[in-house]
């Protein structure tokens, strides 16, 4: 019952949306080291490469 509701203006919501979009675009162009490691592990473990082990 003691909840506080904060008013967020339209311009503030738009600013937050634009920041999220910009961060997503930046991350797509310049992936962080964590996401590169995850992608590399997925490629190594997918079983599509020929193995030299008997």
Helices, strands, pairings?
Elements: H1 10-29, H2 33-44
Which characteristics define this entry?
elongated; 59% helix; mainly alpha; single chain
Distance between the termini: 68 Å
In terms of per-residue confidence, which ranges show pLDDT below 50 for 5 or more consecutive residues? Answer: none
The number of distinct β-strands equals 0
Average pLDDT across residues? Answer: 81
Order of helices and strands: HH
Rg (C-alpha, Å): 21 Å
Tell me, briefly, the overall form.
elongated
**What class do helices, strands and sheet pairing give?**
mainly alpha
Strand content: under 5%
Number of helices: 2
Largest sheet: none
Helix content: 55-70%
